[in-house]
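Reopening this ticket.

The earlier resolution said the output was attached, but the attachment link was broken on my side. Pasting everything inline this time so it's all in one place.
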Amino acid sequence: MKKGPNSSFHSVFSIQNSEFRRRLPAHVAIIMDGNRRWATSRGLAAVMGHDKAARDVIEPIIDRAIQLGIKFLTFWAFSTENWKRDQAEIKALMGIFREGLKKFGSRLNEKGIKLNIVGEMNKFPEDIRKQSEHYMEISRNNKKITVSFALNYGGRDEILRAIRKLIANVQRSTFNVQDLSEETFGQFLDTAGIPDPDLIIRTGGDLRLSGYFPWQSVYSELYFTKTLWPDFTPKELDKALKDYAGRERRFGGNKK
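Inline output:
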């Protein structure tokens, strides 16, 4: 885990401190890892870890982010590689997504949360796609926080799809290739309109991004914790945010 330049900073930094709040990230992205290990360690079926996470973990993290004034929060819920898992587990995951949308979709909208999906949804069952589209539509004008769920998401897949969109726009003469820049390319990514993540958190102990936001993460701060996702609480989020607040971000330039 990367440490900030001043280790004493963390010991005196209160979560209520105004300086802490000034240093908060605008966008936190989370790799929710460890659900299956959490279940296995308790002698449970793997799906019970996913169920625990969906039922008890995500909404309190969203509520804490709202309380602190974080404006963008992204959860990686299902990767392009996850389709390789056992079919029974995939079927159970689809059931959890379906139930989660039904249970939490309206409530999150009532809290003023804008819901968003990144990733390619075409492989998901039609009812899940339609539910997702419904909640994105009814929440599109909400301003409190934008919560995105990365579903059937892979970073390389996203970039390839963005290139195809760009080519299609060039062929339709709606985009001039001479105007291509980092900023204009971003409009073809799934995260168009959303700032790059300032902080990426990975739970579960692995020290890699596994293809999460390769374009967007070039200057993201990384925070790795051994805490399994079903055990990740708002207090664990506070730890990550305090660690982030103690870092000096220079974006390739000199320290000011």
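Reporter confirms the inline version is readable. Confidence is low (pLDDT under 50) at residues 1-12. The longest strand covers residues 145-153.
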